[in-house]
Amino acid sequence: MSTPFSGFVLLAILVAATGTIPVFAANSTSTNSTGTQNPYQNPIAGTTNPTTTTSVPITVTTDKTSYNDGDKIIISGTTRDYISGTPVSVIVRNPIGNVVSISQIDLGTDKTFSTTITAGGGLWQAAGTYEVDVQFGSKDRSAKTTLQFTGSKGGTPSRNTIKVEGTDYSVSYSITNGKVLGIKADIQSKSLIVSIQTTGNGQLTITLPRALIDAKMNEQTDDQFVVVNDGQQADFTETKTTTDRTLIIPFTDGTGQIEIIGTQIVPEFGPIAALVLAIAIISIIVVSAKTGLRFMPKY
Question: Rounded to two decimals, what is the model's pTM?
Answer without folding.
Answer: 0.45
